[in-house]
């Protein structure tokens, strides 16, 4: 069975995935694909993270991402693929300002998005009968299922009008989306 959850936004991602996992005998993998702001790349680039800090729980998830540069690069010809990125799952896309982004950038967080942290909370609970912890470093390098995380850069908050929304999807967004 393959389930596609579109645009769950924040904790909705956790609740939907948790319900699916409770109703399913076995989950082979969870693959998180979405858009994100980037602090070190350009619009349309592909971002592959192996660390996610979740502002909802305060947890930092360390994962063995099943996707790598080698998996994606052959399908991307006009944009960059950046692996070993660090992502932060924020509560809202409207709460960020330069000082806020600088705070995370100083700790090498370069991907800003809204769902990966809550999804990873549900992944944690699939392999552990307790509720996900709060304010901890969480090791998901050997989870109960395969985990993959890829984002495409939809905007660069340090620049003005550098978003796919302001310019349309065009080729730079389309290649990253469908690679």
Notes on the structure:
The chain has helices at residues 11-23, 69-72, 98-106, 116-127, 164-167, 170-178, and strands at residues 29-38, 46-54, 60-63, 81-89, 111-113, 137-140, 146-155. It has 179 residues and is of the alpha/beta class. The chain has one domain (11-178): Rossmann fold (3-Layer(aba) Sandwich), CATH 3.40.50.1580. The longest helix has 13 residues, at 11-23. It is globular and about 45 Å long. It holds the Pfam family DUF6909.
What are the key terms here?
Rossmann fold, alpha/beta, 179 residues
Write a brief structural summary.
The protein is 28% helix and 27% strand. With 179 residues, the chain is α/β, with parallel strands linked by helices. The chain has a single domain, classed as 3-Layer(aba) Sandwich (Rossmann fold), CATH 3.40.50.
Termini separation (Å)?
A: 22 Å
Low-confidence stretches: none
Content of β-strand: 25-35%
CATH class: Alpha Beta
CATH superfamily: Nucleoside phosphorylase domain
Total domain modules: 1
Tertiary shape: globular
CATH topology: Rossmann fold
Radius of gyration: 16 Å
Number of helices: 6
Which CATH architecture is right? 3-Layer(aba) Sandwich
Protein structure class: alpha/beta
**Major sheet description:** 5 strands, mixed, barrel
Mean pLDDT across all residues, rounded?
A: 88
Pfam families: DUF6909
Topology summary:
Layout: H1 11-23, E1 29-38, E2 46-54, E3 60-63, H2 69-72, E4 81-89, H3 98-106, E5 111-113, H4 116-127, E6 137-140, E7 146-155, H5 164-167, H6 170-178
Parallel strand pairs: 1-7, 2-4, 3-6, 4-5
Antiparallel strand pairs: 1-5, 2-3, 2-7
Helix pairs in contact: 1-4
């Amino acid at each position: 069975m393959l389930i596609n959850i579109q645009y769950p936004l924040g904790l909705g991602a956790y609740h939907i995935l948790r319900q699916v996992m409770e109703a399913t005998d076995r989950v082979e993998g969870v693959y998180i694909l979405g858009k994100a702001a980037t602090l070190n790349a350009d619009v349309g680039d592909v971002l592959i993270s192996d660390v996610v800090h979740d502002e909802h729980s305060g947890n930092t998830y360390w994962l063995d991402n099943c996707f790598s540069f080698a998996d994606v690069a052959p399908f991307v010809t006009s944009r960059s693929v950046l692996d070993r990125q660090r992502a932060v799952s924020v509560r809202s896309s409207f709460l960020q300002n330069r000082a806020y982004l600088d705070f995370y950038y100083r700790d090498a967080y370069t991907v800003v998005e809204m769902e990966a942290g809550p999804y990873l909370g549900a992944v944690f609970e699939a392999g552990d009968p307790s509720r996900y912890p709060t304010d901890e470093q969480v090791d998901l390098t050997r989870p109960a299922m395969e985990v993959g995380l890829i984002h495409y850069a939809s905007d660069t908050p340090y620049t003005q009008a550098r978003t796919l929304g302001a310019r349309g999807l065009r080729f730079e967004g389309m290649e990253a989306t469908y690679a």
